[in-house]
Amino acid sequence: MPSPADGLITTDLDVALDRLRHGGLVAIPTETVYGLAADAEQPDAVGRIFEVKGRPRDHPLIVHVAGLDAIDGWTSSVPEAARTLGRTCWPGPLTMLLPRGERATDAVTGGRPTVGLRAPAHPLTHELLERFGGGLAAPSANRFGKVSPTSAEHVLHDLAEFLVPGRDAILDGGPSLVGVESTIVDLTVEPPQVLRAGAIDADEIGRLLATAVAEATGPSRASGMLEAHYEPDCLVVLADSVEAAERRVDAARADGLAADLLDRTDDVVLAAQLLYADLRDADRRGLAELVVVLPPATGIGVAIRDRLTKAAAGGARRRPSRDG
Ligand code: TXA
Ligand code: MG
Predict the structure, then answer these.
(1) DSSP at 172
(2) What is the DSSP secondary-structure string of 81-112?
(3) 157 and 277 belong to one structural domain
(4) Which of 271, 285, 180, 186 is nearest to 230 (CA)?
(5) Who lines ligand 1 at CB under 6 A?
(6) Full domain range(s) for residue 125
(7) Tell me, what's the pLDDT at 218?
(8) Which of 89, 137, 206, 285 could form a disulfide bond with 61, CB atoms 3.0-4.6 angstroms apart?
(9) 167/188 Cα distance (integer angstroms)
(10) What is the atom index within ligand 1 of the atom nearest the CA of 114?
(11) How buried is 259 (Cβ within 10 angstroms: 0-12 exposed, 13-18 middle, 19+ buried)?
(12) Rounded to whole angstroms, how far apart are CA atoms 99 and 115?
């Protein structure tokens, strides 16, 4: 019997290119998470991204390009800061918000005056972008509000029922190595502001630009900054220490709940890489509660804490508090 993977998962760049040129959707591997890509200059194809994701239309999409040489037309001006960051961080996990150019349509920017640009480092997707030539609009390839995908299997699990074999594809490039979404820095404001934490932290950007950089505060303009996001079905509970986590797991089990502890604080790089697979695993195992020990808020630990806080916010909202 054919599995749903037949006709969707591929490692063939020619197939991916053909689908994109014909207005299809292709899930692309990146070093951060898998993206759901369409030709950014085909409005119908971009429109289907929102349908497949179940995402509100006014949420802007990042345009993925091969590199600094490919941003002509996507932005109306390239400030020196963008050249500096592009030279040092691209291809890599950094998205820059810049004034939009004529190629960036309202469908992509959600009608905003800015466009988010990123050159991903995954070799397969880098080659795809070089051969494609244009820009690929791509959000993370998960249903809106849910856990991001870091493998082709995750994408298949989430989106198989919405993708059409022969029209769309999932390009399999193995597991994502960074594991959390790109850092987003807004270069249209003074000083530059980090809107979403990622592998490249605000200190590093500040060092590269030799200027102060503001961290995200107050209501952000990025949808990934919604309070609840990255939500698994199980309740995510945050703990500041292993001891606190163990107490919480014991209490949950005493209540008859399937609960477990996740502690990857000894290796934050691995913790980021496996974060979304760990959250998905908790659901696959049917856990009611996953108690996670938070890493220190430095480097990529800031991004891990950000995603976990949002994963936990959803559960806290959905369920009556067990703590009274
Ligand atoms: O690592 C990543 O950035 C991944 C991979 C696929 O590149 N993409 C990703 O896309 O995380 P998405 O759509 O899940 O998250 C992008 C975030 C959203 O919160 C969106 O609102 C924000 O970036 N964004 C994009 N363009 C923007 C703009 N012009 N102004 C403000 N926020 C923007
Ligand atoms: Mg996302």
Answers:
(1) -
(2) HHHHHHHHH-SSSEEEEEEB-TTS-HHHHTT-
(3) no
(4) 180
(5) 30, 32-33, 35, 59-62, 95, 97, 109, 112, 114-116, 118, 120, 138-140, 181-182, 184, 221-224
(6) 9-219
(7) 47
(8) 137
(9) 37
(10) 29
(11) buried
(12) 6
At position 247, the amino acid (one-letter code) is R
Q: Tell me: ipTM over 0.90.
A: yes
Are 108 and 55 within 8 A, CB to CB? no
Distance, in Å, from the CA atom of 22 to the CA atom of 39, rounded to the nearest integer, reads: 9
Query: Which of residues 219, 252, 275 is at a domain's end?
Result: 219
- How many A from CA of 158 to the centre of ligand 2? 13
Dist. CA 262–CA 274, nearest whole Å: 11
Q: How many domains does the chain have?
A: 2
Half-sphere exposure of 174 (CA within 13 A, CB side): 7
- 261 three-class SS: strand
pTM, full prediction: 0.95
Entry field: residues in the chain: 324
pLDDT in tens, 277-310: 999 999 999 999 999 999 999 999 999 999 999 9
Tell me the Cα Rg of the chain: 20
105 and 40 in a common domain: yes
